[in-house]
Amino acid sequence: MSLNLTDVTLTYPDGDGRLTALDRVTLDVPEGGLTAVVGPSGSGKSSLLAVAATLITPDSGTVTVDGTDTTGMSRGELADLRRHRIGIVFQQPNLLPSLTAAEQLQVMAHLDGRRPRAARGRALDLLAAVGLADRADRRPHQLSGGQRQRVNIARALMNDPGVLLVDEPTSALDHERGAAVVALITRLTRERGTATVLVTHDRAQLAAADRVTEVIDGRLSAHAPTTHAPTTH
Fold this sequence. Notes:
With 233 residues, the protein is an alpha/beta fold. It is 32% helix and 26% strand. It contains 6 helices and 10 strands.
């Protein structure tokens, strides 16, 4: 499974003109590979992730998810694609206060029409995979910030996606917990063969990535400023 953005341009209305958020961006993320995307605020990182997630349709170019070209798909088709092939880890976990950790995951399976017993079993397996087997019946207020982020990651994997998109997972965590979360994402990427994009401001975590690319004014740079990981275009 892979993620491919080819010659993608995205603009937004800006007064009488258009503001270019992404300028002919090409990015290839292979199966089992972790690509880190860095760049200053307003550089286009969030736009890149939104286009990759098919939440925003670019002005031009193509987005291919697991071999499927998303060009021309309807909203319903894109929603179905996201539900089955794309896992999104948002910056804030946004867990439902009244649900346990396991139930947070089971909601995803319910939306996909899975049987409750099978969904419970998969939820418990995923919580064990992220080191929370003993926290399955805890509610968000009973979990630490790092544990809530782990539930967030497990939830994104509930429907076995081929593409995993991760937005600033360490922003609310200290260095030690942030490093643990990135290590977890790296391990799950390898084990589950996802094509993973990690957007981050934390350059200390870049050593975990297979490739590092920098967004500057909507363009991808082949020379991200790090000595810890190779770069890519």
